[in-house]
Structure formats: C-alpha cells, structure tokens
Amino acid sequence: MKLIFVRHGEPLKDDYGIAEMGKEQMKLLTQYFIENYHIDDIYSASSQRATESAIFLSGLIHTDVKYCQWLSEFKYRLSIGSVKGEFPWELPLEYWIDDDQMLDHKNVLNTKLLADSEVVSRAEIVWNKLDEIIKQNGYERVGNLYRVNNPNKKEIVFVTHFATMAVMLAHLLNISILVALNMFFMAPSSYTVLSTEEIHKGKSIFRCLELGSTKHLYGRNELKSEYGRQAEIRN
User: Fold this and answer.
1) Would you say the pTM of this structure is higher than 0.90?
2) Eight-state DSSP code of residue 48
3) How does DSSP assign 75-127, residue by residue?
4) Are 189 and 217 a contacting pair, CB within 8 Å?
C-alpha cells in the first residue's frame, strides 16, 4: 500500500486560499497522478487551502473526497516565553538540536517544553486518526511497526498542510516530530510517497520512496516555490 501526502498549492499571501500559481500547480499534479498512479481514496483537510487544492484531484476517484478536520493546519504554540519562535517548526536550535531526548521519537513527547503545550495531545489525535485509516486498509499499528492483516496495493492520498504532513511522517517513520518539522521541506503542491514493505511475514514498515517531490513541475521553474522555508542568515 502507498500513502501519498500532498501539500496544498501555493497560498495567497493576504488570504487563506490558494493563488493562481497554486491552481496551476495542482492541475499539473493531477495530470501527473493520472499518468503514474491509480488513486483509491483521497482525504483532505477541511481548511480552505486544502479544499481548494483537493478539488483538482477529486476527479481521480469515483467516490467523494473525504474532508477531515484533524488534517487541518497543525498550528499549536509552545510555552517558551518571549523567545522568538512560537511553533515547533521554528523552535530555536539551542532548545533541541543537541538534546538527544528531543531527537528521540518517543522521548520528545515527554520533554517539559512539549508536554506543557497542546502539541502532544494534538499530535496523538492526528496519529490515531491516521492509524484508523491505515487499519481499515489492512495494516494495524503494533509498537513501531504495522501488522499486515490484508496486504494490498491501494494508493491513498492525503491533502494537507506542511506541519500536519511532517507530524504524520514522524509517526510513520518513527522519528522525532522536531526532526520532521525542522529538517524536512515539502514545497507547495509537492507530494511525498510512503510504501509498506513486508520484509518479515506479517510485519511491515513504511519506506519513504519520495519526499517533497515536484516532478510534476519539471520544466516549469516559474511554478516552483520555497514558501514555508525560514530565511537564511546571510552576511
């Protein structure tokens, strides 16, 4: 089974929808999926940017897109006083990069910085909802892997926001959410593909085949975007 995570198209700067550039990106992504995938289901965040993006992909399936509140933007503040950087994807490096507990996919949730915020409870909601869908489709989470109840080659798309996508990837790949939120980048309209691998009978992991791919934009450099990256310091 493949899980395909799609970030919404290029957003409007002064509104919450997607720009004309984002619509063109999503048209090209839809055509790319038609030529390369056989999508079985599409789940989308119920937020405006996601719904405006998902509508382009809706023609790929014979059933309705399933809109989910839990897939909407993962935007929960940390309690770090006056320090610049309110959200886990902009946490200053000195708070986590040299702390092994922060880099561990389980222990990071027990750190005071995260435990005192909404981040942990909200992440668990996202993970539980995601695992429910995965279980419905034949794979059940047990510890850090997935028990294979019904192996299949389904392809399921999730249309969402960068941070929400990063939180889901952290769960599936067993890595710290801080690593996924701060060290991965998925551009607007990019897609990320994870596939099950049943290396041992009845036991599966998810392998990342593509991360933040923009193959659908090859030859269209004017449509490529780095929206969401933090600015680098330049002397």
Assistant:
1) yes
2) H
3) ------TT-S--SGGG--GGGTTT-TTTTSTTGGGGSHHHHTSSHHHHHHHHH
4) yes
- Render pLDDT for 131-175 as a digit per residue (tens, 0 to 9): 999 999 999 999 999 999 999 999 999 999 999 999 999 999 999
Tokens of 222: 């004017």
Instruction: With respect to residue 218, please indicate whether it lies within any of the assigned structural domains.
Output: yes
Residues 190 and 170: their CA atoms lie apart, in Å, by 18
Q: Are strands 203-213 and 66-68 parallel, antiparallel or unpaired?
A: unpaired
pLDDT in tens, 1-25: 999 999 999 999 878 899 999 999 9
Rg (CA), the chain: 18
In a domain, 234, yes or no: no
Any domain includes 92 = yes
Q: Residue 102 is part of which domain span?
A: 2-223
